[in-house]
Amino acid sequence: MDQLVVAGKAYSSRLLVGTGKYKDFAQTRAAVDASGAEIVTVAIRRTNIGQNPGEPSLLDALPPSRFTILPNTAGCYSAQDAVRTLRLARELLDGHALVKLEVLGDPHTLYPNVMETLSAAQTLVKEGFQVMVYTSDDPIVAKELEQIGCAAVMPLASLIGSGMGILNPWNLQIIIDNAKVPVLVDAGVGTASDAAIAMELGCDGVLMNTAIATAKDPVLMASAMRKAVEAGREAYLAGRMAKKPYVAAPSSPTGGLIAPAQNKAA
Amino acid sequence: MIVLTVNGERRRFEAPLTAAQLVASLQLTGKRVALERNGEIVPRGEFDRQALLDGDRVEIVVAVGGG
User: Fold this and answer.
1) Catalytic residue among A21, A100, A126, A227
2) Nearest to B67 among A41, A46, A69 (CB)
3) Residue A58 CB burial class (10 angstroms; 0-12, 13-18, ≥19)
4) In this structure, are residues A228 and A208 in contact, taking their beta carbons and an 8 Å threshold?
5) pLDDT digit string (tens) for B11-67?
6) Distance (Å, rounded) from C-alpha A86 to C-alpha A63?
């Protein structure tokens, strides 16, 4: 069976989803179920002191017994904050080591700060974390993150929350061709075809949130994304035909026509 | 009386307390939370034993929706 293997663990779904921007936890869960995702990413935030102590928690809707919870460092702008956040996350999730590292460089674009990301990755790997790392689509940085010991490298397709799709497939191709760890596109996917293209390029998986959560019908979009990732993966494994700009071979026999074509060259 | 900074807010307490007592006072007992005291993780199993001292900075976090 074709499985995604991250940090020694196999998953049947190659679609990873975020849990932000949903109307409520019921919609979050319905979308996650429709996506077929086994790995779901969550943010770590201060408790709202004094506010509704009885209110349900995200992990009641997405129990860690059923899903692989991937705590992330969304909103962190320094290596130090990202490392502190993930140490808290590990404690919160009873020693769980698989994490998503992202260190942002700019609140306007949410573009990753690769210097801080590299520094945080070094510390986290030393501390025994299994790091899935969000980064730019720079092949040299991606390789460096792999060599530090990250469990997966996750370049952006385009900016977080932009829905602009895959802006630089050639860079992604270099990253995929050079990588010995899984490569997942994280951020920028807007609709199903974007996810399919990422998988056709040879990505091992896709991580997305906004494309599903802000669709008019998030549950239906989650289902579309599941199919797109599966279709893209199968197309990649099948091996696409060669592109021929012209002199294409017809699919039907060239002989036996009731009115044979005139050979103008003769 | 002691003053703690809890999740960035200064809060006064009549007497010194443990991490477990702070969590209880916030009605978070039994919830899945993680706690950091002055930048260091306090494991959940040690909440009962961890004294909080005047001036401590405490962070208490949960998992929330995010991407």
Assistant:
1) A100
2) A41
3) buried
4) no
5) 999 989 999 999 999 988 888 999 999 999 999 999 999 999 999 999 999 999 998
6) 19
